[in-house]
Amino acid sequence: MSRKLLVTGGAGFIGCNFVHYWLKSHPRDEVVVLDALTYAGNRASLAAAEDNPSFTFVHGDINDTALVEKLLRERLLDTIVHFAAESHVDRSITGPDAFIETNVLGTHSLLKAARTVWLAGDGVPHRFHHVSTDEVYGSLEPDAPAFTEQHQYQPNSPYSASKAASDHLVRAYHHTYGLEVTTSNCSNNYGPFHFPEKLIPLAITNLLLGKEVPIYGDGKNIRDWLYVEDHARGIEAVLENGVSGEVYNIGGHNELDNLTLLEVLCKSLDRKFADDPDLAGRYPLAPPAKGLPCSSKLVFVKDRAGHDRRYSINAEKLRRELGFEIAVYFEEGVSRTTDWFLANPQWWRQQL
Ligand code: NAD
Question: pTM of the predicted model, to two decimals?
Answer without folding.
Answer: 0.97
